[in-house]
Design goal:
Layout: H1 5-22, E1 26-27, H2 42-55, E2 65-67, E3 70-72, H3 84-137, H4 141-161, H5 165-183, H6 190-211, E4 247-251, E5 261-265, E6 272-273, E7 275-279, H7 282-287, E8 292-295, E9 306-314, E10 317-322, E11 327-332, E12 338-342, E13 366-370, E14 373-379, E15 386-392, E16 399-408, E17 414-418, E18 421-429, E19 432-440, E20 446-447, E21 452-455
Antiparallel strand pairs: 1-3, 2-3, 4-5, 5-7, 6-9, 7-8, 9-10, 10-11, 11-12, 13-14, 14-15, 15-16, 17-18, 18-19, 19-20, 19-21
Helix pairs in contact: 4-5, 4-6, 5-6
């Protein structure tokens, strides 16, 4: 109801009160018909008159005076009380109706906006169901389920063939039994199909157990998995100071080599570098004397420059990730020659860096070395970002073996190889890391229940 309705109501009541006090009517043939001139809308007049005439329905006799053909009388309309309360009730009802109408109009507008979206959703569902209706009409559901289970059996057979030798015979026999059940599944009902699925689930769980590193693990150079790490043996501030906080350092990794220490700082946003600083002995390294700087590239932006902190000195050569690519570089310290080799499908430029709470930039490709040789740690799109470990020929960078783990590379802070076993660390605090994962390259088994703490320094 418009805001002016209330004011019009009071104006109308005042006018009617004035008319009812002093108004005299003259009537001839139709004394019940009269008109009143009041400035109101037609709806208001009809409502008001309907209420007013209802009150006039009672009869009142008035004495008149006949003059000629006419009868004149004085009528005091105050005898009838105007139905103010009823009028207000009707006005309130009109208010409620208009408010309800506004709400309904708003809902209709919202529904009109949602109708196109609903139509698109229904259309998409119809398109998706059309293919299933085709399968249902030709009774192909059952065959598709069997085909999927058959594929799972094939994958299990491949996995079992690489599982532990002591369990291989038993698992192979059980797989043969399940495959025989699959051949007869078309003659059985759906409940038997569920039984086959349960058997497959049990076999998968047993296969996972076979993949776990045994508690009595031994290898050619170790009697068990890593169980303890001492406090840091070498603690030293970088000779470059805090200007270059990122890079790599260490001792030459091959045991037959001389005791030579090196530092490789990263510049240009802690990303690139081209210079290594060498120290002939541990004493020289600790006292920062007798250093020698060697450039592996003319500048840090050269195509053969270093990217990331994954650099390693191994057997008279520097191994590192080539500038702005997923390729490997080998710089020979004797011949000054650089060899480049592509690392297939490897992520780079922060595609798969080490992370945990925050990511360590430019750590996509990381070199490591142990008693058995040279390794590179990375991740690929094909592995869905899980760590891939490859053993390299240190002379020409050819890949000799590759293992794909089930550990997501961005979930670890670092990784290294010891005695053919890949270890991964995670963040504990600003001063402590934890070795929590191991992957044995000899058996392909893994263990993610390690809890070996490792102290670290933070400036």
């Amino acid at each position: 109801m418009p805001r002016s309705m209330r004011s019009l109501l009071h104006q109308t009541l005042d006018k009617f009160h004035y008319l009812m006090v002093d108004w005299a009517c003259t009537y001839k043939a139709s004394p019940s018909v009269f008109s009143i001139s009041v400035s109101m809308s037609s709806v208001q007049i009809v409502t008001l008159l309907s209420l007013f005439l209802t009150e006039l329905s009672s009869t009142l006799n008035v004495q008149g005076v006949k003059q000629g053909d006419s009868c004149f009388c004085d009528v005091n309309l105050t005898a009838w009380q105007f139905p103010v309360r009823q009028y207000e009730d009707v006005a309130n009802l009109v208010d409620s109706c208009e408010e309800l109408q506004g709400m309904l109009q708003t809902q209709v507008q919202l529904l009109e906006k949602k109708i196109p979206q609903i139509e698109r959703t229904v259309g998409n569902m119809t398109d998706r169901l059309r293919a299933f209706q085709y399968l249902k009409s030709r009774s192909l559901y059952y065959d598709l389920q069997l085909h999927q289970m058959d594929k799972e059996l094939e994958r299990l057979e491949v996995d079992v063939s690489t599982a532990h030798q002591t369990a291989q015979g038993t698992l192979s026999q059980e797989l043969s039994s399940v495959r025989e059940m699959m051949k007869n599944a078309k003659d059985h009902n759906k409940f038997n199909l569920e039984t086959v699925r349960d058997n497959l689930r049990v076999l998968k769980n047993r296969l996972e157990t076979c993949r776990t590193i045994d508690a009595k693990f031994t290898s050619n150079c170790s009697q068990r998995l890593l169980s303890n790490i001492s406090e840091p043996v070498v603690t030293k501030l970088s000779p470059y100071g805090k200007s270059y906080p990122s890079g790599s350092w260490g001792r030459e990794a091959k045991s037959s080599a001389m005791e030579r220490y090196w530092i490789q700082p990263l510049v240009s946003g802690n990303r690139h570098g081209n210079v290594l600083r060498f120290y002939p002995t541990h004493e020289d390294f600790m006292s920062s004397r007798g250093e020698q700087d060697i450039a592996v590239a003319p500048s840090y932006s050269h195509t053969n420059a270093i990217q990331g902190p994954g650099t390693l000195l191994y057997d008279e050569a520097v191994f590192y990730q080539c500038y702005n690519t997923g390729e490997l570089c080998r710089y020979d310290l004797s011949t000054k020659a650089t060899i480049r080799k592509s690392l297939p499908d490897a992520g780079f430029n922060n595609r798969f860096p080490y992370c945990y709470y925050t990511c360590h930039d430019w750590t996509d490709i990381d070199f490591s070395a142990d008693e058995t040789g040279l390794w590179v740690i990375y991740a690929t799109e094909a592995s869905h970002g899980n760590i891939v470990l490859s053993r390299l020929d240190s002379d020409n960078l050819n890949i000799t073996h590759t293992w794909t783990t089930r550990l997501f590379k961005k979930s670890v802070t670092n990784a290294f190889v010891v005695c053919g076993v890949l270890y991964a660390t995670r963040y504990l605090s600003a001063y402590e890391e934890e070795v929590f994962y191991a992957f044995d390259t000899n058996t392909g088994k893994e263990n993610n229940m390690l809890a070996v703490k490792m102290e670290k320094f933070k400036i």
